Amino acid sequence: MPRPTLALGLFALVVLGACHATQGASGTQIVQPGAPGQPTRVISEEKATDLSRVQFTPADVRFMQGMIGHHSQALDMTALLPERTERDDMRMLARRIEVSQADEIQMMRRWLEARGQDVPGPHAHHAPGAPLMPGMLSAEEMAQLAAARGAAFDRLFLASMIKHHEGALTMV
Fold this sequence. Notes:
Elements (H helix, E strand, L loop, with lengths): L2 H17 L10 E3 L8 E3 L1 H7 L6 H23 L7 H27 L24 H9 L2 H22 L1
Antiparallel strand pairs: 1-2
Helix pairs in contact: 3-4, 3-6
């Protein structure tokens, strides 16, 4: 299986593992995403437990560690928005990004911890010499974003978020 497919598949399984509820008292079902072009399917709790024992590679660990830093920078970017925009729709977008990225960081932290792997700190991406993952803004770009206000900030924020998330796709 090619590495990007493996990483994407493992990421889907991690999301499944982090988000699943058992079928029964709550009435929810465990749904396993299908491979590209394939349908999802409902699986038993036992099958989900088996999936949690799927082996991982050093590349999977590096991906999760790097994605924590990547998501952390998205949170840094959204933290700038409330005092720099005048638009409610931008505030709503930032809030949605903030909630989803923070939740995914926690899921990735749990994934690494469950496998006995190092978990980067919340500010590890700021450390001198920290790798700049694809799509991440440089210190200079972050400073430009922080200095902008109003419509100029909004345009730069959106352009930066597009770059940031295209980089995440490259990582996957």
